[in-house]
Amino acid sequence: MFLRIEKFPEKTVVGKSVKMSLAQNRTAEVWQDFMRYKESIKDKVGTTLYSIQIYDALPYFENFNPTTEFTKWAAIEVNSTANIPNGFNLLRLESATYAVFLHKGLPSEFQKTIHYIFSQWLPQSDYRLADRPHFELLGEKYRKNEPDSEEEVWIPIRKL
Predict the structure, then answer these.
(1) CATH 3.20.80.10 is right for the domain spanning 2-159
(2) Residue 83 to residue 73: CA distance in whole angstroms
């Protein structure tokens, strides 16, 4: 499941975002809206999609509550900010260190991957969470709702 520690380079993404909580999950809504108009985005870099979570502060994880809100993004990398279509937003992902994990399987099994990361890997590592966006990269091996689907899970970390 654990793949590597990697320095993520600064990137700019364009997408749609929504405030939500795990209790009131609006993931499908933001992705449907994004996919409906994705082709209007100019200057895309590749086809990899970004599923991004921005938490207001690290206590989100320390005092976990499924009703606490965060911002969910559906996005794609761009190499220019000159042609952002109406209704889309721009987000700059700063360069930072991440632990990268592989989730293989159905979306309904994603919780197992997250549980492993936060209850096993992270507490036993030499790292702690950093206050940066978390994201999943949905590349060519990503297959929506297929058991052989693969996505990379990027968790921001800092050395102890």
Answers:
(1) yes
(2) 19
